[in-house]
């Protein structure tokens, strides 16, 4: 086998170096991870530790203070894999800097980009993306938030729901209906008419809020991209960042397996190690196999997305489904292996169990993604 063939399925050096950075950061928040993962507001210490590393710069193009010339899906993915293994709060804070600002990176006016994106890169400004509404989830074309141009300004009215970083964000990229189309508008959090409330919390506590927009007025240059073309920016965001959810799921699953192996090796039942008893070895081996399968697809999809995100959205979608479903299965098996210790409140595995479940819903539920993939497969007729 040639030297180039030996490296065919290995990450290039720059990504391995990012993994080392991300692992060090993740380990640095281990002492506060449990506290942060129960918070409904951004943890100050987690933010400071992420800020000190400069890793948030990976979510912004280099011309605005970021790490790489363009946002690199594989870079984001390998970082999230390491962060999610230790702290869901840290993983979300990192990822949302990109998800909340990507539309601005590719479609904003120069003035808005130059003002906001360097602050996003160094974590001086927290970004958020406002898509869903109380009665609108996957069917975004049913949204009711309105955008009108009045007297040289954009007037926005609407109610966004379950918005990550809501209440703590410095700006929101809001999708709304404008005329016959849908536009994306940047709204600073301190704009008159913007209020937030937190009526919901999920099983793995998260920085979430509803964002209410009442006669909110912003200058015309706060429209991101062309009028009525907001969906293309949202799709570009999903194409770039969806695969990174798969990375986070792989990291979480690996962390759960390590918990199960540690427990099984350290516990003796019926005169033998639990790791050699009954179906436990099979559970552990199957978890390991599932994780490696998911990781392989995730890295392939992320590398393809880094080359051309829109053209490879199908691979990113497959990876997101596969890895999040694997994470669910692995964590469930880990709980089963650990028995009563797996269902103990306040344990690491309990926290991982709760973190894993929402992954199969946010940024495209498994069922919605599979339906979209099936339509593409049937329409194109080729693999």
UniProtKB/TrEMBL annotation:
<dbReference type="Pfam" id="PF02771">
    <property type="entry name" value="Acyl-CoA_dh_N"/>
</dbReference>
<dbReference type="InterPro" id="IPR036250">
    <property type="entry name" value="AcylCo_DH-like_C"/>
</dbReference>
<feature type="domain" description="Acyl-CoA dehydrogenase/oxidase N-terminal">
    <location>
        <begin position="20"/>
        <end position="122"/>
    </location>
</feature>
<dbReference type="InterPro" id="IPR006091">
    <property type="entry name" value="Acyl-CoA_Oxase/DH_mid-dom"/>
</dbReference>
<protein>
    <submittedName>
        <fullName>Acyl-CoA dehydrogenase family protein</fullName>
    </submittedName>
</protein>
<dbReference type="Pfam" id="PF02770">
    <property type="entry name" value="Acyl-CoA_dh_M"/>
</dbReference>
<feature type="domain" description="Acyl-CoA dehydrogenase/oxidase C-terminal">
    <location>
        <begin position="228"/>
        <end position="377"/>
    </location>
</feature>
<dbReference type="InterPro" id="IPR013786">
    <property type="entry name" value="AcylCoA_DH/ox_N"/>
</dbReference>
<dbReference type="Pfam" id="PF00441">
    <property type="entry name" value="Acyl-CoA_dh_1"/>
</dbReference>
<keyword id="KW-0285">Flavoprotein</keyword>
<comment type="similarity">
    <text>Belongs to the acyl-CoA dehydrogenase family.</text>
</comment>
<feature type="domain" description="Acyl-CoA oxidase/dehydrogenase middle">
    <location>
        <begin position="128"/>
        <end position="201"/>
    </location>
</feature>
<keyword id="KW-0560">Oxidoreductase</keyword>
<dbReference type="InterPro" id="IPR037069">
    <property type="entry name" value="AcylCoA_DH/ox_N_sf"/>
</dbReference>
<keyword id="KW-0274">FAD</keyword>
<dbReference type="InterPro" id="IPR009100">
    <property type="entry name" value="AcylCoA_DH/oxidase_NM_dom_sf"/>
</dbReference>
<dbReference type="InterPro" id="IPR046373">
    <property type="entry name" value="Acyl-CoA_Oxase/DH_mid-dom_sf"/>
</dbReference>
<dbReference type="InterPro" id="IPR050741">
    <property type="entry name" value="Acyl-CoA_dehydrogenase"/>
</dbReference>
<dbReference type="InterPro" id="IPR009075">
    <property type="entry name" value="AcylCo_DH/oxidase_C"/>
</dbReference>
């Amino acid at each position: 086998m040639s030297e180039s063939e030996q490296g065919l399925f290995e990450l290039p050096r720059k990504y391995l170096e990012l993994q080392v950075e991300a692992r060090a950061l993740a380990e640095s928040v281990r002492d506060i991870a449990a506290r942060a993962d129960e918070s409904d507001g951004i943890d100050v210490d987690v933010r400071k530790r992420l800020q000190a590393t400069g890793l948030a710069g990976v979510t912004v193009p280099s011309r605005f203070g970021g790490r790489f010339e363009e946002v690199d899906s594989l870079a984001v993915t390998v970082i999230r894999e390491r962060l999610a293994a230790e702290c869901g709060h840290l993983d979300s804070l990192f990822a949302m800097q990109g998800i909340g600002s990507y539309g601005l990176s590719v479609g904003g006016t120069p003035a808005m980009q130059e003002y906001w994106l360097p602050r996003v890169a160094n974590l001086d400004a927290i970004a958020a993306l406002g898509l869903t509404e109380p009665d609108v989830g996957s069917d975004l074309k049913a949204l009711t938030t309105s955008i009108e141009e009045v007297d040289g300004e954009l007037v926005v009215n609407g109610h966004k729901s379950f918005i990550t970083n809501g209440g703590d964000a410095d700006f929101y990229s809001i999708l709304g209906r404008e005329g016959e189309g849908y536009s994306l508008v940047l709204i600073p959090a301190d704009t008159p008419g913007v209020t937030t409330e937190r009526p919901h919390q999920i099983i793995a506590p998260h920085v979430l809020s509803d964002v209410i927009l009442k006669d909110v007025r912003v200058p015309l240059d706060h429209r991101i991209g062309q009028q009525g073309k907001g969906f293309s920016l949202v799709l570009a965001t999903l194409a770039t960042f969806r695969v990174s959810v798969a990375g986070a799921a792989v990291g979480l699953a690996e962390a759960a397996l390590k918990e199960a192996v540690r427990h099984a090796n350290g516990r003796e039942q019926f005169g033998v190690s639990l790791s050699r008893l009954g179906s436990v070895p099979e559970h552990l081996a199957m978890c390991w196999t599932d994780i490696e399968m998911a990781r392989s697809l995730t890295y392939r999809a992320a590398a393809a997305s880094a080359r051309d995100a829109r053209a490879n959205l199908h691979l990113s979608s497959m990876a997101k489904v596969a890895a999040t479903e694997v994470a669910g299965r692995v964590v469930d098996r880990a709980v089963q292996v650990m028995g009563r210790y797996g269902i103990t409140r306040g344990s690491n595995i309990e926290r991982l169990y709760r973190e894993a479940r929402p992954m199969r819903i946010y940024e495209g539920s498994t069922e919605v993604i599979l339906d979209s993939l099936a339509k593409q497969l049937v329409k194109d007729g080729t693999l």
